[in-house]
Amino acid sequence: MKKFGLVLAAVLFLSFSAFAQYATFPKFEFNIMGGYGLAQAKGNSSYYDEWSYQLLQYVHEDTVLDMKAENAVYFTGGLSYFFHPNFGIQLGAGYFSSKMPITGTFDFTYKWTVSSTVYNEGATWGGDPSDGKISTIPIFLNLVGKFRTSMIDIFVTAGPALYMNSLEANSYIGFGDTYFYSYYIYPYTYYSQWVDAFQVDATIPKTSWTAFGGNFGLGFDIKVAPSVAITAEARYFLIPKKSLTWEWMPGAYDSIFYENFTGWEYTADDFADYQAKMTTLEVNPSFFSVAIGLRINFGAK
């Protein structure tokens, strides 16, 4: 926030300085731009459990889900009103939507009580349908400081912003299970046990939330006509972090390593205690944008 305060101070300094004085100046400026958004959103979730049962000395199961948003197209537009050749306010909005590919890794380690051998299996997954999506609509109200020349104007903007965000994701969780039974054939009792793991569907349903943050930008206009300019800017959108919870999906699953189990049914109650051991997904929706477009001036005073 210290840097954000410095940017605001720079805007005010530029606004009230006597860099340029005009007999007339445009009171209104409308701009529309498109460009590229550099995403910062990324997150990590994990699930770990350790257990034993009957002939199993121990079972360790560990899932890690890594997510990182991709860079994508960004659109923005705004209307500015100038009280002074070098000072005004700007109301603007934008749209940024990005895919968030997910990479999952699963480690499954176990040991039988009658064996000194440790068995280890692993699985990885990624790509559709193991992916996510994040989108943001910023609405910002900025102070504008502008240094005007005959051909090129340089401007700085900064101010608060309201962000309307949404995120959704789908992936898998590695989940171990076992089946044990005993049977008697005179005069002995025999035991049999299988162990394997499943890829359980997990999802973060589309979740929308609003947040207050800030934004600041730097850009320039190249005049191509008395009331028209080509405009370009770089802008950073500062958005608070958000924590989201994965939901495990009930259903019938087949085991993945040894094909020991087919169509095993799990309900939400079966997953409830295990789902609580999974960490939330904390994401930072902030992003940086570079855009170019047109600026139209009108209402000269």
Would you give an account of this structure?
- This protein is mainly beta and 301 residues long.
- The chain has a single domain (2-300), classed as Beta Barrel (Porin), CATH 2.40.160.20.
- It has two helices and 15 strands.
- It has helices at 2-16, 268-275, and strands at 26-39, 42-53, 56-68, 72-84, 87-112, 118-147, 152-185, 188-225, 228-238, 242-244, 247-248, 251-253, 264-266, 281-283, 287-300.
- It has an eight-stranded antiparallel beta barrel.
- It is rod-shaped.
- The model is unreliable at 14-23 (pLDDT under 50).
Topology:
Elements (H helix, E strand, L loop, with lengths): L1 H15 L9 E14 L2 E12 L2 E13 L3 E13 L2 E26 L5 E30 L4 E34 L2 E38 L2 E11 L3 E3 L2 E2 L2 E3 L10 E3 L1 H8 L5 E3 L3 E14 L1
Antiparallel strand pairs: 1-4, 1-15, 2-3, 3-5, 4-5, 5-6, 6-7, 7-8, 8-9, 8-11, 9-15, 10-14, 12-13
String of helices and strands: HEEEEEEEEEEEEEHEE
Measured by DSSP, the beta-strand proportion falls in: over 45%
What value does the Rg take, in angstroms?
29 Å
Distance, first to last CA:
36 Å
By CATH reckoning, the class would read Mainly Beta
Count of all domains: 1
What is the residue-mean pLDDT, rounded to a whole number? Answer: 90
Strands of the biggest beta sheet: in what spatial order? 1-4-5-6-7-8-9-15
| CATH architectural name | Beta Barrel
> What gross morphology would you assign?
rod-shaped
Summarize the structure.
The protein has 301 residues and is mainly beta. Helix content is 8%, strand content 73%.
